[in-house]
Every structure is written in C-alpha cells, then in structure tokens.
Amino acid sequence: MPSTPPEASARCRIDVKGIRKTFFAQDGGERREVVAVDDASFRIGDGEFVALLGPSGCGKSTILNMVATLIAPNGGAIEVDGAPVIPGRPTRHVGYVFQKDTLFPWRTVEDNIGYALELAGVPVAERRTRVAEAIHAAGLDGFARFYPSALSGGMRQRVSLMRTLITQPEILLMDEPFGALDTHTKLEMHSVLLGLWERTRQTVLFVTHDLGEALTLADRVLLLSARPGRVKDDFRIDFPRPRNAVALRETRQYAELFQRIWHSLGEEFAKGHVP
Questions:
Q1: Which of residues 270 and 192 earns the better pLDDT score?
Q2: Of 16, 30, 96, 200, which sees the most CB atoms within 10 A?
Q3: How big, in percent rounded to 5, are the helix, strand and coil portions of the chain?
Q4: What digits encode the pLDDT tens for the residues 156-185?
C-alpha cells in the first residue's frame, strides 16, 4: 500500500490505517450493503499539501469526512498527531472548507469571516484587526460590508476560505471547494489559495475530481481506485514553489505528469463503467 515518501516530513500529522466504510441503500425492495471505502491507508506529513483524486463515487469525500470526524469508519483507524480521532468530536487545530460556501446570508463579509472568532470570545479590537488582515489577504478590499448575495461565486468562496483560515488551523481539510466555479474563477482561486498557503504552510488534505487542480496545488496526489476506494497510486509532485497557477500548466513537466496520472485515472474510469 502506498505511503508517505521518505523525503516527506518525519512528523506525521494524519495517519489513515486500513479504513473501511459501508452504507446501506435501497435496491428496489431490498436493502443492501454498499462498500464505499475498503482498506484505504496513507500518511500525511507536517506541512504537506496532499490531494485526494479519483473517479466519481470512489469515496474521496467519505474519507475526508472520516478524518474530519463527521462520520465513523466501520473498520481501520485514523490518527491525527498520534491520537485516535473520535467520531462526532472535532479535532483541535483542524479546519474544514466545504463544497458549498455555507455563508450566513444575513451577515456581511466581515461578520462572516469573524464569526468563529466571535464564538471564541476574541476581543472586538483584535477581531477587527484579524478580519481586516484576512479580507486584504483574500483580495476582498472594499467588500467588507457587502452581503453574500452581492458577491460572485469566487468571492463567496474566498470569504468561506478566510472564515476557516482566520482560526489558524494547523490542518486544513478541503472538500472540492472550487468544484462549482468556472475555469477562469477556479484558476483565480488556485492563485489565492497558493499565496495564502505559502505563508502559513498548513497540512492540507484536499479532495478534487480535477487532475489539473491537483497538479497545480499539491505536493502529492493520492489516486483512489473505483469503488470501493483504495489508494491505488501515490504520485510525488515536484514542481518548484512558489507556483504560478497559469504558467505551470504551460510547462513540459506538467504535461508529462498529467499524461502519466491521467492514464492511471482512466483505468479507474473504465472500471466504473463496467456493468
């Protein structure tokens, strides 16, 4: 089973050991068990940006949600910083960015971003300073008092991202946060995320179905098999940092690695279409 390459950080932040997840679904008049993930294992070192990639239905988000303690595995184990995760109990220093922005429509940009600090009892003066810094870092200057309904999809995702990052998580879990965006806006968000991550270097587990996105952002790409999801391949992405989200895609190295991973991914697409 693929594991963290030897050059990766010696300190393991996320350790997934042979996890399995099953669901029950109605098939006509019968209730049957569906195996979503089976014997999936991987390790993520401190400061690594790792993308989970695979065909639709292979269990990418299921794995992420098990790491996030939102659902419980049926087998195997998950550890964060050496301690077992407990389903239903949030893990300290772990942030989560969802597929949809989940902003409060009745709160302004600044109030949405500062919500977690407000809940934590951070003093007003400090909260205002940190929110202002977050707004500037996300390129949202001038929009602090706008409501979500007045923002574009990309701007809403920036607000959602900063609402999580402002809590200064050491580990960031991201579930296809840019999947609904058009290509141009998605590339803009890649540049924003890369810029923010270069400053803080959180450990990131990023779910995506977009190979180009994975190559642009990640240090490693974990390729999952068709359902039931297992780690089929572990690709090291050695493009130098900092990265330009647009210029990178024009390089020969990008094209060669894209083709290599695409071949392996295509095999899983084919399996998923076999009756």
A1: 192
A2: 16
A3: 35, 25, 40
A4: 999 999 999 999 999 999 999 998 888 899
Q: CA-CA distance, 112 to 160, in Å (whole number)?
A: 8
Residues 6+ apart with CB under 8 A from 234: 2, 3, 5, 42, 220, 221, 222, 223
Report the CATH number that the domain containing residue 203 is assigned in CATH.
3.40.50.300
d(CA 243, CA 254): 12
Are 191 and 245 contacting, i.e. CB atoms less than 8 angstroms apart? Answer: yes
Q: For 46-170, where are the E strands, in sequence order?
A: 49-53, 75-80, 83-84, 94-97
Count of domains observed in the chain: 1
Closest to 202 (Cα-Cα) out of 231, 176, 169: 169
Domain that holds residue 30: 12-93+169-272
Q: Is residue 127 part of a domain?
A: no
Specify the 3-state DSSP secondary structure of 269: helix
**Residue 101 within any structural domain of the chain:** no
The residue to which tokens 């500062």 are assigned: 114
Structure token digits, residue 111: 């109030």
pLDDT at 272: 59
Give domain status of residue 264, yes or no: yes
pLDDT number for residue 25 = 81
